[in-house]
Design brief:
By secondary structure, the chain is α+β, with helices and mostly antiparallel strands. The protein has a single domain, classed as Electron Transport, Fmn-binding Protein, Chain A (Pnp Oxidase, Chain A), CATH 2.30.110. The chain has four helices and eight strands, in the order E-H-E-E-E-E-H-E-E-H-E-H. A hairpin with a 2-residue loop joins strand 4 and strand 5.
């Protein structure tokens, strides 16, 4: 069962915003490169227009999504209903990375709650929005959001996070450029 709306309407935007976790998949152009799939959470996702979405990208152990987007822009995002009626939404499109050094970064980051560990904002222009059944997705109850990432970022502080990123986020597993610092 597949239904492909052309855009994100208000009802779909509401569903997307309610999901406590979503997944993003990217890949480098090289056939020898690694396909990457990452979960995203916290209050990091926003629908901006019927064809544009964004999320706050937090410091992490890898930089694959950012590096792949900088190389080729291709991305798919997936949202699953873990409660209520079953459904899976996929947003296919092209993303770009807004780094903190860019002049308009401040305008983008204001869309999200303050978080010490933001390393970029990802903006995706959706070329395809698809809806599938989700009958195989389990029903699950959210017990809460994990506090470890915000707490770790606070303990590191701005200088510690900058050092961590230089050491761990400079290049992807494929050797592609990561952060712009």
């Amino acid at each position: 069962m597949s239904d492909a709306p052309a855009t994100i309407d208000d009802k779909l935007a509401e569903f997307l915003h309610r999901q406590p976790v979503f997944f993003v998949a990217t890949a480098p152009l090289s056939v020898d490169g690694f396909v990457n799939l990452s979960p995203k959470g916290l209050d990091s996702f926003r629908v901006l227009t019927p064809t544009r979405v964004a999320w706050a990208d937090y410091v992490g152990s890898g930089i694959e999504t950012v590096a792949h987007l900088k190389e080729n822009g291709r991305i798919v995002m997936m949202f699953c209903a873990f409660e209520g009626p079953p459904q899976i939404i996929r947003l296919h499109g092209y993303g770009r990375v807004i780094d903190p050094v860019e002049p308009h970064f401040g305008e983008w980051i204001r869309l999200f709650p303050a978080h010490t560990g933001v390393r970029s904002v990802i903006v995706v222009d959706c070329s395809r929005v698809s809806k599938t059944c989700g009958f195989g997705v389990p029903l699950m109850d959210l017990r809460g959001h994990r506090s470890q990432l915000p707490e770790w970022c606070e303990r590191k502080g701005a200088e510690g996070l900058a050092t961590y990123q230089r050491e761990n986020n400079a290049t992807s597993l494929d050797g592609l450029p990561g952060i712009s610092a």
